[in-house]
Specification:
Layout: H1 3-10, H2 13-24, H3 29-36, H4 40-52, E1 57-64, E2 67-73, H5 95-110, H6 129-148
Antiparallel strand pairs: 1-2
Helix pairs in contact: 1-5, 2-4, 2-5, 3-4
Length: 174
């Protein structure tokens, strides 16, 4: 699966929410729909899009009322981050739609923000390439740590949190 296929698959706010949800627990379309407050048909459609892009996988099939329910899981975000693995894979196709979906999702999450430890940062800087590589690696490791530690929704002793990061080199200004 190419980077463009991944970008297109994630270029929808509901699919971003499904990826987050399925990081902490395997869920069926019905379970995910209930948790996110959407129809089962909508959840099922978006889960199939994510599965075709290989961003989630079926980890269990359970018998439900004479039928079968597939439970999906998103696991790749908890794996060790390698910033060099995707060098040269940049594809402008799909990136704009993905960023727009990410912006919409960040707006939704920001409306639910409460007090507690938090960090907001923004920067457009000139920086040494070695320092840049270290920063990207650290943020990637933080993301992997969060995903690996994710629990199912509403697990006692846990709280919902949000992390959004977009790190990328930019063109020299003229």
């Amino acid at each position: 699966m190419s980077r463009i296929d991944e970008l297109r698959a994630t270029a929808h706010p509901l699919r971003l929410r499904l990826l987050s949800l399925l990081t902490g627990a395997a869920m069926s379309a019905a379970e995910a729909a209930r948790e996110l407050g959407v129809s089962q048909a909508s959840a099922s459609y978006h889960l199939r899009v994510l599965e075709r892009a290989r961003l989630i996988r079926i980890v269990e099939i359970v018998r439900v009322r004479g039928g079968e329910a597939k439970r999906y899981r998103h696991e790749s975000s908890s794996q060790r981050y390698d910033p060099d693995a995707r060098l040269g894979e940049r594809s402008p196709e799909g990136e704009e739609e993905y960023i727009e979906a990410l912006v919409d999702e960040l707006r939704r999450r920001a409306r639910t923000r409460i007090d507690g430890p938090a960090l907001t940062t923004d920067a457009e800087l000139w920086i040494d390439p070695q320092v840049w590589s270290r920063v990207v690696r650290h943020v990637g490791e933080a993301s992997a740590l969060l995903h690996a530690a994710a629990h199912p929704p509403r697990t006692p002793g846990t709280r919902p949190v949000s992390m959004t990061a977009a790190l990328f080199p930019i063109r020299h200004p003229r």
